[in-house]
Hints:
Elements: E1 7-8, H1 30-46, E2 57-63, H2 68-81, E3 98-103, H3 114-123, H4 154-160, E4 164-172, H5 176-179, H6 198-202, H7 208-214, E5 221-225, H8 256-259, E6 263-264, H9 284-295, E7 302-308, H10 310-316, H11 320-334, E8 339-343, E9 350-352, E10 354-359, E11 364-365, E12 368-369, E13 386-389, E14 400-405, E15 415-417, H12 420-429, E16 454-460
Parallel strand pairs: 2-7, 2-16, 3-15, 4-5, 4-7, 5-6, 10-13
Antiparallel strand pairs: 1-10, 3-14, 8-9, 11-12, 14-16
Amino acid sequence: MKVKAVLIICSCLFSGCTGKPQFPDQEKDPKFWNVWAQRTLKNALTLQNLNKNKAQNLILFLGDGMGVPTVTAARILKGQLNGQSGEETQLEMDKFPFVSLAKTYNTNSQVPDSAGTATAYLCGVKANEGTVGVSAAAVRSQCNTTEGNEVTSILRWAKDAGKSVGIVTTTRVNHATPSAAYAHSVDRDWYSDNEMPAEAVQAGCRDIARQLFENIPDIDVIMGGGRKYMFPKNTSDVEYPNMTKHSGTRKDGRNLVQEWITSLFEPGDLPYDLERNSKTDPSLTEMVEVAIKILRNNPSGFFLLVEGGRIDHGHHEGKAKQALHEAVEMDRAIGLAGLAPMLSDIDQKPFTSILYGNGPGFKIVNSARENVSTIDYQENNYQAQAAVPLSMETHGGEDVAVFAKGPLAHLLHGVHEQNYIPHVMAYAACIGQNREHCMTAGSGTDGLRPVLSSIVALLTVTRIVC
């Protein structure tokens, strides 16, 4: 889980802002704010009656690249897309009653990557950067450190408990975040055997795509991209037959899609939501809706991992507009950029409301900062200005927010290690280890009451801040 931090400089995010933003007249009245605060207080008081029921279903939403600054920016953009000034808007995740912070560092890196962090929040164990589903005893890219260091995920715990399980992502299904749910790999980049060194294949290490179908039989729902890693090398893609970059990559000749039924909508990652063809590629919201309809048929309940993974990609590329629209779509799934109004007081040039600490948006024109008023900053792929030049924007190392609701969601409070999260979800659903509290009341314990309810955790991830 990576963290990208965008720096919010001013209040105007969307195009069309000229001068200070307008706000409703009601906000001038102290009564408006007092009534709102009192209503919020009454809602908070109801939380004293903690939900201690047993969770039937588990849903983990992961916003990769969605640190607290991105959450704030997405909230404003959502409001502006609805014709408001934006700041007063409420995201679906804002409605979750419990919020905590998770420390994201990897065992060998202060600033983490998506692989090591995914291992933490899915497997309950902190891990090294670049590795998935293995403990910190495993060394990245060293095949012989895999065996004996495998760790299982909450998806596996749920499957073993008789629940249906699913994975929905806007990235490749064998990308860092989803792969930690089912794979054990010392290298996150071993998407197929084509990306593996020959000695690793010969030593018996398996690529991540293969592990998707072999490690946990019968994952009930798999939706996302990455189908080129499932087909024999040079096999033409069904959607892009004349584009070799989308052709199959597998050297072992296996056709994994033929062996297993999946919903893989693209050869690689799914398109950004702003560029999506609604006739051929579903939105994240649509995939989640279908996944839940399928999974809820199991009377024992389900576990679903949902990743909004392209928020991260937008930030890496310095494309704030893409990243924020991905975050807003992520918020839609949970509920089923313009000029600043001021000039810089140093160079007297305008600046956009989203800036990066580093990245590809660093530009010097005539020995000075680029004047954004001379370019099309409203274009979807506009790269926001950055302070330090890099080909790709980097990760951040700050804590990230965890929003939770449902049975025992109050256990996600304060500041915790990231690997604490799946332990709480498993405890609430009586799966995995530590199930003594799940015994019936008649056995002399206070046991959890089984009810048809869900615990939902939204985990966000961050970016670098200036």
